[in-house]
Design brief:
Blueprint: H1 4-7, H2 22-42, H3 53-67, H4 74-80, H5 87-100, H6 105-116, H7 123-143, H8 145-148, H9 159-170, H10 173-193, H11 195-200, H12 209-213, H13 218-224, H14 242-245, H15 248-251, H16 254-276, E1 292-293, H17 319-325, E2 329-330, H18 332-360, H19 369-374, H20 378-381, H21 391-395, H22 399-404, H23 412-432, H24 439-463, H25 470-480, H26 485-515, H27 519-547, H28 549-553, H29 564-578, H30 580-584, H31 592-602, H32 605-613, H33 624-630, H34 642-659, H35 661-689, H36 719-722
Antiparallel strand pairs: 1-2
Helix pairs in contact: 2-3, 2-5, 2-27, 3-5, 3-9, 3-35, 5-26, 5-27, 6-7, 6-26, 6-27, 6-29, 7-23, 7-24, 7-26, 7-27, 9-10, 9-26, 9-35, 10-35, 16-33, 16-34, 18-24, 18-31, 18-33, 24-26, 25-26, 25-29, 26-27, 26-29, 34-35
C-alpha cells in the first residue's frame, strides 16, 4: 500500500515558496480557534466524530482566496495578500488548525470531575494541565521520527486524501481541472444531501427493514436497531448519512478493512452470545451502556450506581461505604469490550514484533555499546553542523524525505525540551489539582506512554488503524495506586493521551514531509495550534457541562447531545481505579477482563505459524490486534452505518483499485476530500442553526421520516432507557 504515496503524490518541491507569512498566522490561529470549539462540541455528541482535516483544508482555501481579493498595495495588502496563496502556506495552516481540532483528554477529566465529583481545579491549573498533557507525547514522538516518519513504508493513510486535495488545489488548473471538477461536484452534492438525513429525514441514517416489520420487539432492537446512541448493533441496517459512514472507507487500506470486517462479524456473535446467555447478569442491565449499575437493578428497572456514596471527600474509596452499597455491575457488552480491548493492545505488541521487528529494533539502538561510545564524539553533539550522508544512504531514502534534506531539521533537543518542560508542568499540575497521584506514578505513566508510542505508532503508520491503549494504562495505574479513581484518571491522562497525541504528531510530520514544509515550520504550527486548543477546550467544556448536565448524565442522551464518552471514561476510572480488587481480581465477577492482556499476547501466534507453514495462502494479512479491537466496535454510537461503510470500502479499495487503477490514483482521494469537506461544513452549520449549540434547538416536525419521540429507525424503545 505504501507505493500509493509514491505514485499518487508528486515527488517534487519548489524551495522558493514561503510559508512564513502573516496570512498563515492569521488564518491558522483563526481556524485553530474554530476547530478547537467544534472538536470540543463533538466530544459531547452521541457518535465520536473527529473534525476532518479535509474540512479544514477546504475552509482555509476558500478564506485564502477571499484574502487574495485585497489589493497588494498598502499596509493591509502587504500583510494579508503578499503573493498568491501557495501550498506550503496551506499545509502550515492545515497542520496548525488540525492540531487544535482534537478535544483534549484533559478536558474529559475536567468534565468528569464537574459531573461526578465535588472538587475541580481552578482555571489556570486546568489550562496548563490540558497543554502539558497534549504536548508530552509530542516530545517522545519527535525523538522517534527517524524511525516512524522518514521511511517510505510508514505512510499514514489518512494523509493521502489531504495531500491529493492540496495538490489538486495548487497545481496548474489545466493539469488538475478534472480532479477539481469532481471535488466541487462531490462537495456540493453531499453538502445539499446531508441536510436530508441529518435534519429533514433522519430515518435515512438507519433504514432497518426488520425494525419496520416488527416495532414491538426488544430483541429486534438489540440486533437490528442502530440509529440512536446505545440502541443496538444495527445489523443489516443501511445508512445514507456520510457523516457516519466516514471517509475512512475510502482511504484505509484493504488489509485494514478486511480485518475490520472479520472483527465486526465476531462482535455481533460475541455481544449476542453474552447478552442472551445472561453472562455477568447481562439481562439485568441495558444491552449497550457505559454506566455503572447498582446490584439492585433488574431487567425492568436499571438503578445507576452512586459513586459519590462510596468515595470520601478526597475521591478515595471508602470500603465501609462500599459494603453498604454493594459492588456495582457493568453492562455485559461493555465488560466484553474492555476485555477485547485488552487483547488488542498486547496482540499489537506481538504482531509488530513478529512481522516488523527489523523496523522496531532500531529504536533501541541507543542502548548499544557503539551508540554509547558515539556520544563522546564531537559530531554527535555539534547539532549546528550539517550531517553528512553517503551515496548509499541517500540512494535508499524515501524520495519525499530526500527532498527535505535541503531544509534545517527541528533538532532532537527541541523535542527533548518539549518533553522535559511538559513533564515538569504536568507534575506540578497533578499536585495543584489534588489528584492524589504520586510523582513516581507520573514517571511510570510517561515511560509506559513512550513504549506504546513506538509500537502503536508503527501500527498506525502502516495500517491507518489507531489502537486505543486506555484499558491497559488504567489497569496498571489501578494496581500501582489502588482505591483512587480520581488518581487513575490522571494516570490515564498522561499514560494514554500522550500516545494518541504522539501518533497525531507523527502523522503531521509525514504530512509536512509530503508537502515539503520545513520541519521547523511544522514544529511551530503544532505548538501554536495545541496552545490555542488548550484554552478553548477548557472554555467550551465548562459551558456544555453546565448547560447540558442532565442530558450528559442520562443513559441514552438525545440524538444531539450525549455523555456516553464521559460515562465510559468515568466508569473505567471507577472500576479500575477504585474497585479493581473487588471487580477484576481472580474470583470476582469480571476476572477474565484483565486476563485479556495475557490472551492477546498469544492471539497472533496461530496466524503467524500458519503463514510460516503456508506462506502463499495469505495468513500474514490477518492482524489480530485490529480484529480483537473490532470485536468490541459496536459498544456505543450510531451502529447502522457499518454495512454501508464496508460496502464503500470494498468499492473503493478493492474494485476501483484493482479494476480501475488509473481512476483510483487520480480521483479516489479527491472524491474522499470532497465528501468529507461538504459533510462537515453542513454539519457545522446545522449544529449551530438547528441543533442548539448556540442556543435553543429548532427541531424538524415529527412525521414518518422523523420519529423524534422514539428511535429514528422505529425499533422498539426500551422503556427502562426512556425513563
Amino acid at each position: 500500500m505504501e507505493e500509493i504515496a509514491l505514485y499518487a503524490l508528486h515527488v517534487d518541491d519548489d524551495p522558493s515558496l514561503n510559508p512564513w507569512t502573516f496570512r498563515t498566522w492569521f488564518l491558522g490561529i483563526g481556524l485553530s480557534c474554530f476547530s478547537a470549539v467544534l472538536a470540543t462540541i463533538y466530544q459531547f455528541k452521541p457518535q465520536g466524530i473527529v473534525l476532518s482535516a479535509t474540512f479544514l483544508c477546504v475552509i482555509s482555501y476558500v478564506l485564502a482566496l477571499v484574502l487574495e481579493y485585497i489589493p497588494k498595495s498598502g499596509f493591509l495588502g502587504r500583510w494579508l495578500n503578499p503573493h498568491s496563496f501557495n501550498h506550503k502556506e496551506h499545509a502550515a495552516i492545515l497542520i496548525m488548525s488540525s492540531t487544535a481540532a482534537r478535544s483534549a483528554m484533559a478536558a474529559e477529566v475536567i468534565a468528569v470531575q464537574r459531573l461526578w465529583y465535588t472538587k475541580t481545579p481552578n482555571a489556570a491549573v486546568c489550562i496548563f494541565l490540558i497543554f502539558s498533557s497534549q504536548i508530552l507525547g509530542y516530545g517522545v514522538a519527535g525523538l522517534l521520527r527517524k524511525i516512524l516518519v522518514y521511511p517510505t513504508k510508514f505512510f499514514y493513510p489518512a494523509n493521502l486524501p489531504i495531500m491529493s486535495l492540496l495538490e489538486t488545489l495548487h497545481r496548474k488548473k489545466v493539469d488538475t481541472k478534472p480532479q477539481l471538477k469532481l471535488f466541487y461536484w462531490a462537495f456540493a452534492i453531499i453538502f445539499v444531501w446531508e441536510l436530508i438525513p441529518e435534519y429533514i429525514m433522519p430515518i435515512l441514517t438507519a433504514v432497518s427493514v426488520f425494525c419496520l416489520a416488527n416495532q414491538k420487539s426488544l430483541v429486534f432492537t438489540n440486533i437490528f436497531g442502530g440509529g440512536n446512541g446505545n440502541e443496538g448493533l444495527g445489523f443489516l441496517s443501511l445508512c445514507f448519512d456520510f457523516q457516519y459512514i466516514g471517509s475512512g472507507a475510502l482511504y484505509l487500506p484493504l488489509k485494514t478493512q478486511f480485518n475490520t470486517m472479520v472483527g465486526y462479524c465476531l462482535n455481533i456473535a460475541v455481544f449476542l452470545g453474552i447478552f442472551y446467555g445472561n453472562i455477568w447478569r447481562a439481562k439485568d442491565f441495558p444491552f449497550l451502556s457505559q454506566l455503572l449499575f447498582s446490584p439492585e437493578s433488574n431487567s425492568t428497572s436499571y438503578v445507576t450506581f452512586n459513586q459519590t456514596a462510596v468515595l470520601n471527600e478526597h475521591g478515595v474509596l471508602d470500603e465501609s461505604k462500599l459494603a453498604t452499597t454493594g459492588i456495582p455491575y457493568m453492562a455485559a457488552t461493555f465488560a466484553s469490550y474492555v476485555l477485547t480491548q485488552n487483547m488488542a493492545i498486547t496482540a499489537t505488541l506481538t504482531h509488530m514484533c513478529l512481522y516488523h521487528w527489523d523496523d522496531l529494533k532500531s529504536a533501541f539502538d541507543f542502548m548499544s555499546l557503539a551508540s554509547i561510545k558515539s556520544l563522546v564524539k564531537p559530531s554527535t553533539w555539534m547539532f549546528w553542523k550539517k550531517e553528512s550522508r553517503t551515496e548509499e544512504e541517500t540512494a535508499n531514502m524515501d524520495p519525499h524525505y530526500k527532498l527535505m534534506l535541503r531544509y534545517k531539521d527541528a533538532p532532537d533537543w527541541w523535542y527533548g525540551l518539549v518533553f522535559l518542560a511538559s513533564g515538569v508542568v504536568g507534575l506540578i499540575c497533578i499536585y495543584e489539582a489534588d489528584s492524589g497521584m504520586a510523582w513516581w506514578a507520573f514517571i511510570v505513566s510517561v515511560i509506559l506512554a513512550s513504549i506504546m508510542i513506538l509500537f502503536m505508532g508503527a501500527q498506525y503508520g502502516l495500517t491507518g488503524f489507531q489502537l486505543h491503549v486506555q484499558p491497559i494504562i488504567q489497569m496498571i495505574g489501578a494496581y500501582l495506586e489502588p482505591g483512587r479513581p480520581l488518581t487513575n484518571m490522571y494516570f490515564t491522562l498522561f499514560g494514554y493521551n500522550s500516545v494518541g497525541q504522539g501518533m497525531l504528531l507523527l502523522q503531521d510530520l509525514k504530512l509536512g514531509q509530503y508537502a515539503k514544509l520545513s520541519p521547523r515550520c511544522t514544529f511551530a504550527m503544532q505548538m501554536v495550534g495545541t496552545l490555542v486548543g488548550a484554552i478553548l477546550n477548557y472554555v467550551i467544556t465548562l459551558s456544555i457541562t453546565t448547560n447540558q448536565r442532565e442530558i450528559l448524565l442520562s443513559i441514552e442522551g438525545t440524538h444531539i447531545w450525549s455523555g456516553a464518552a464521559l460515562q465510559s471514561f468515568n466508569t473505567q476510572a471507577i472500576t479500575w481505579g477504585g474497585l479493581a480488587k473487588q471487580m477484576y481480581s481472580w474470583g470476582s465477577t469480571y476476572q477474565w477482563v484483565p486476563l485479556g492482556l495475557v490472551i492477546g499476547f498469544a492471539a497472533p501466534l496461530p496466524g503467524y505459524f500458519l503463514h510460516r507453514l503456508f506462506p502463499k495462502v495469505g495468513f500474514n494479512h490477518l492482524n489480530m490486534s485490529i480484529i480483537c479491537w473490532h470485536i468490541g466496535w459496536l459498544v456505543t454510537g450510531i451502529n447502522s452505518a457499518i454495512i454501508s461503510f464496508l460496502a464503500v470500502a470494498f468499492w473503493s479499495q478493492y474494485y476501483l483499485r484493482r479494476y480501475k487503477p488509473e481512476w483510483f490514483l487520480k480521483y479516489n482521494y479527491v472524491l474522499c476530500a470532497g465528501l468529507d469537506g461538504g459533510t462537515q461544513v453542513i454539519v457545522f452549520i446545522m449544529t449551530f442553526v438547528f441543533f442548539g449549540a448556540s442556543g435553543k434547538p429548532i427541531p424538524f416536525p415529527n412525521y414518518w421520516g422523523n420519529n423524534a419521540n422514539g428511535n429514528i429507525d422505529f425499533c422498539k424503545l426500551n422503556p427502562a432507557n426512556s425513563g
